[in-house]
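Hi Q.,

Before the meeting this afternoon, I wanted you to have the MU-OXO-diiron prediction in hand. No need to reply - just skim if you have a minute. The sequence and ligand are here:
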Amino acid sequence: MFSEKIQKGLIKQLNRELESSQLYLSMATWVERKGYEGICEFLYDHSNEERIHMLKLIRYINKRGGNVILYDLLHVNTTYISLKELFMKLLEHEKKISKEINFLVEISLQEKDYFTYNFLQWYVEEQIEEEALSKTILDKIELIGEDKGGLYLFDKDMKSSHKNIKL
Ligand code: FEO
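Predicted structure with the ligand bound:
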């Protein structure tokens, strides 16, 4: 069993992952409506990945004898101004999640909970990848700008490559 402080932090984090899943779902549905077949597949997959992040936390809490609490889901906007705005939000969101993971790592060290410290290393690695990937996509979208042909090719590229992208 872990401390109350650790349990509270882990519960907060699992609910953040659930919110992330819902956020990416909202992005995927907007992008699909706009006709971007590749980018929407990437975002739907990303939404599923976030759910897996949540499940890993739930399973860990249960394994350590804790009690899982699921918060009510927030209402998420499903309208975006542009792909650029959407991916800017995505990157900001991932940066926020990274800060929260770092905070949790800090608490686990303060509490001398080395099991949780070890468990969280997977999330630390994951956040490095997710931030880098979001930044790469945003950079590409900024580079393409208003070029419709460029966006078409980028979307096509995402469609063929998203299965190989590690989230
Ligand atoms: Fe589970 Fe994208 O952080």
